[in-house]
Amino acid sequence: MKENNLYREVVVIADDFTGANDAGVSLALCGKKVSVAFDTPFTASTDVLVINTDSRALKASDAAEKITRLAPDIAGAQWLVKKIDSTLRGNIAAETTALQAISGKRQVIVAPAYPAAGRTTQQGKCLVKGIPVNETEFASDPKTPVPRADIGDLFGESHATVVTVDTLTTVLAQGTELLIVDAQSDDELDSIIAAAQHCDPVPLLVGSPGLCDALARHLAPVRRKQLLAVVGSMSEVAQQQIALAASQPGVSSVFIDVNDVLTGVTAGYLARITQALEEGNHCIVHTCVTEAARHQVEMLCQQQQLTRAQLGETICAFLGELTRQALAARAPDALYVSGGDVAIAVARALGAKGFEITGRVAQCVPYGKFLGCAWLRPVMTKAGGFGKEETLREVLHFIEERLSD
């Protein structure tokens, strides 16, 4: 049977069906294949196996006996989780002890907190919205009443050590076998997973959906969506927008020297844009950094013997082609173009036949998609002089938090 577990990154043992689904859903949402088994052995290939033992209301000895049958199904799992009820209902100690025995795990981390549902752990006690669980309605649950809030009491004579997230790593390194970890936030649950990861072997994790959510965040962190912004406008407003956005963490800027464009010395710009995107940053490409640059246009026209219109067309054509190459080399999640001439130059470079509008962000930035070309991801456009200083920063936040694929 062990060969069936080669692709089981995580095995979760739950004591009821809805709890099994609660444990697995965040792992499914982060891209894992999650299977919930009602019966074992389970032979199908899956990234995450969640086993429902349906044992919450059984006698402790019967619940433990069910766990002992699961040895073939847990073998080879990188992460082993005993999913428990966040209000301590069920046979937590009996099932945890049985699972530790068949898995051979030396250390156990118990962290029942589920902050999103108002369940926290403080000084080793389970609280529901700040009230000890045995003083809430769960104390009189018709099937599985909860008589105590002290988590350590569940394990009877077993020596449980109550620790905070700040001391968890140190106590784990000392070899303490049974740890109850206080947690009042998702960040603290994330820290528990991080501490467990550095143990060899990884401890048995005992927790509610909150801990399973933290494990999902650890195994498949959400990649921040990226924007390639191409700003050809020389307006003062556009420069203020660039400066504020570029000062934010995770934002790179690539200044295009117009003299390089006119002399053909453009090698390296594409590599800089690609590098910024590969590093996970937003990238702002622009041609103007100061007010003085706007007053150099006439001098450039005289030097190159070009009209202002010809100069603008040359720069825009370059930006359009550079954008096309950048999108082909390392596609971001969305494209932002500021300045009407630059926007149409980019559209032409991509071979677009039109534009479908689907919405607006930051009050002055329509977005949608190009039609008739290979670039199918969102495109945002903005007139150069429109908006306020925060407009481009607001666009970045929209990309990161709200824009769907």
Distance between the termini: 39 Å
Number of helices: 15
* Overall residue-averaged pLDDT value: 91
Major sheet strand order = 2-3-1-4-11-5-10-9
Strand proportion, as a percent range, falls in 15-25%
Which sheet architecture does the biggest sheet show?
8 strands, parallel
CATH top level of the largest domain?
Alpha Beta
Helix content: 25-40%
Shape: elongated
Identify low-pLDDT runs: 1-6
Protein name: Four-carbon acid sugar kinase family protein
Organism: Enterobacter soli
Pfam families: NBD_C, SBD_N
GO molecular function: ATP binding; kinase activity
Any overview of this molecule?
- Helices cover 38% and strands 20% of the residues.
- It has 405 residues and is of the alpha/beta class.
- It has 2 domains: 2-219, 3-Layer(aba) Sandwich (Rossmann fold), CATH 3.40.50.10840; 227-401, Four-carbon acid sugar kinase, nucleotide binding domain (Molybdenum Cofactor Biosythetic Enzyme, Chain A), CATH 3.40.980.20.
- The strands form 3 sheets. An 8-stranded parallel sheet has the order 2-3-1-4-11-5-10-9, with helices on both faces.
- A hairpin with a 3-residue loop joins strand 16 and strand 17 (365-371).
- Helix 2 (60-68) packs parallel to helix 4, helix 6 packs across helix 7 and helix 10 (269-278) packs across helix 13.
- The chain is elongated, with a radius of gyration of 29 Å.
- The two termini are 39 Å apart.
- The model is unreliable at 1-6 (pLDDT under 50).
